[in-house]
Amino acid sequence: xxxxNTIRVFEGFAGYGGASFGLKKANIPHKVIGYSxxxxxxxxxxxxxxxxxxxxxxxxxxDEKKLPDFDLFTGxxxxxxxxxxxxxxxxxxxxxxxxxxIIRICAYKQPRFILLENVKGLLGKKHRxxxxxxxxxxxxxxxxxxxYAVLNSKNYGVPQNRERLWxxxxxxxxxxxxxxxxxxxxxxxxxKDFLDKNPDEGLYRTQAQIxxxxxxxNAPVFDVDEPLxxxxxxxxxxxxxxxxxxxxPEHNIMRIVEPMVNGKERLRKLSIDEHFRLMxxxxxxxxxxxxxxxxxxxxxxxxxxxxGWDVNLVSVLFKHxxxxx
Length: 325
Ligand SMILES: C[S@@+](CC[C@H](N)C(=O)[O-])C[C@H]1O[C@@H](n2cnc3c(N)ncnc32)[C@H](O)[C@@H]1O
Prior knowledge:
Bound molecules: S-adenosylmethionine
CATH architecture of the largest domain: 3-Layer(aba) Sandwich
Number of domains: 2
Largest sheet: 6 strands, mixed
Strand order of the largest sheet: 2-1-3-4-6-5
């Protein structure tokens, strides 16, 4: 049984459970009454960390009338499927998209809070009508003066340039003076502080592979004084100690450059622990905030990290939100 002040949560599009991990990290009393995801690897990872929570599966198939009550709906909904039906009116039509299912469920269940996340691109000229539609739909079902803000992981303690759009609403409206964006926290660490002490040798590129990167991509000499990030597409070593956005491994945009050893360049992939540290998890000898099922390989786990929420940022955000309500 949930205690009186326990927030009951429905975690939509759960992935590895960014909302659950964030609430846990923020020490906010909560109980997840159910989640929704359809990808096998996400489900395996979620259930390995949060067993015995019911997965309601494909959100389009959920019968909102059969869901238990909850106070908070969370969801980083996929942004690709926005339909352009109705283009002639100059307006995106969200009917038949996953966002519409959030609206359908929340219109019926009327949770007190809704927290959504998406790509920053929704603020751009092209996708702005979609964002306007999202806001107006939330207004329509009772979430007045919804706020949104672009938050960057590097402003909350993790040396990753990861910008995401966050949208938050309260049933009936937000109080006067409410500000969604938490105050920035000075970044006191660099990428080197998030790396493994003894990285697996298998992560390193061979000399032949490094030679090939020089040849094809005209990369700079990998000569650094501390481990830094190499931006594969822009062909630059980032000297600010921050890494670019962690993406699924198949996008292949980031490498770690380490100081040379015996005059030889050292370039490698991120380990899985490093992926997840950069997504805000503490993973050291004493504390392991997320556990990985042995069934999931490097690519699958890396993909979950690249698609996930920065749980450090989420914990800061939840604390900031609930301190104002
Ligand atoms: C951007 S990820 C969300 C990441 C999550 N917030 C986390 O912290 O890991 C979007 C998720 O939506 C899931 N998804 C896609 N279509 C879905 C559907 N029809 N019903 C439920 N989940 C869906 C995907 O499998 C993916 O895990």
